[in-house]
Amino acid sequence: MGEDEPRLLLLVDRDPAQVRLVGALAARAGWRTHAESDSATALAYLASDETESPQALLLDSMVAREDSCQLIGQIRAAAPSLPILFLAQSASPLMAVEAMRAGATDYLMKPIASERVLYALDSSVHADVRRDELAPLSEKIDAPLDFDMMIGSASNFRDAMARAAKSARGHTPVLITGEPGTGKELLGRAMRSASPRAKAPVVVLHTAGMSAGNLESALYGHERGAFPGAFDRRIGCLQDADGGTLLIDDIERLPPALQQRLAKTITTGEARPMGANHSFRLDVRVIATAAEEYGLLVGHAMLDPALASVFTGASIHLPPLRERHGDIAPLARHFLALIGEQPGLRRLGVTDEALALLEGYEWPGNLRQLQAVLFRAAVFCDRDALTVQDFPQLFDLVGDALPAANINHGGGVTLFGPDGHLRTLEEIESDVIRLAIGHYRGRMSEVARRLGIGRSTLYRKVGDLGIDNAA
Prior knowledge:
Elements: E1 7-12, H1 16-28, E2 31-36, H2 39-47, E3 56-60, H3 61-64, H4 68-78, E4 84-88, H5 93-102, E5 106-109, H6 114-125, H7 127-130, H8 155-168, E6 174-177, H9 184-193, E7 202-206, H10 212-220, E8 221-222, E9 234-235, H11 237-240, E10 245-249, H12 256-268, E11 270-271, E12 280-281, E13 285-290, H13 294-299, H14 305-310, E14 315-317, H15 328-339, E15 349-350, H16 352-359, H17 366-380, E16 385-386, H18 392-398, H19 425-439, H20 444-451, H21 455-465
Parallel strand pairs: 1-2, 1-3, 3-4, 4-5, 6-13, 6-14, 7-10, 10-13, 15-16
Antiparallel strand pairs: 8-9, 11-12
């Protein structure tokens, strides 16, 4: 296939409306689509020497239903390197996990979100970036909705949280900037949850993959007959969010004319649907996200001056994960706790060696990629904790750069051994006592008091464990 030739997506789906939707979304990203409605014809297509080889396959769970995993295995045998995207029902997350174990590359949940489809397709074909478990998966876990769930102690991150918490209490528009995957939408939702509009409607508009005309209609709505193909009246996001909050993802993707119109709407509180003869007043707080910092957006003319002025002094920048490496360990444990609550999965720990490995990577996909890597590793882990062996591609990339010394992330106490299994209680107890003796500089009375045991018991344990309390 030539570099400029559109890629081919093999879509295995029996729903004509969904086939049209996915085909339209894929076309915007430069993909062609070939659809098959059942498993037999899809396997025959892959086996034929007369058909074009697809660069990705999207399988709807409704095609094979309970036999989906068996079908994925057959597809994998027929095309070992073909990325397989599995489309699962929102009520069946366990099937999605089982699909990954059967050989699926990634999974998406219904109803289909346009930006997730585009992201999954893009990730599926960039083998140099994907490297198996390094492929950012679509979002699998419910988004945290409050500031207590925004994990991190890096100073630049805490500064951003302080600005966000202060801004959340107001009603003015806010712009959240940061690289893809840094958690901009999650922060926007947290701000909305902490705002006076917490119980009012919230509407999210993802601009990725939408044409200029569709964006205008999505924002403002349209009357019947407003343009060719407008067979029905549509209510826009602004009107749906009246009294509440509108989250606009990647606001810089809006065409300049639409940015000007939105700026006027925010300023005046008036909006007019496409093709309408009347305007209506609304009360909406706009929280927007953008991939570049405010200064770059203005300097590179990515924001219309009128819209830029709306966000003057009201922007919050989320730092990339590579600038907050000290937060990787607590973030990893936080994500593993959330992952462990998903159907078909369980709560896992992570060894210090594995955490050191995670900290050695630059994470171009930021939080989204870290969560995806942990999710993929957890799906296939059969031990009590993730180890270095659960991240083979990551070790190939950064393993040689890891420090020779053992890095400890447990405050001096390691719960898991390098093999991913819990250490013995005696070993852990010995480390706790050593840590306490060192922390309190050998003051055994204080050590005993802090550990909640008597001095005689402490001295007996020190002797039994062979601990030198003079160190």
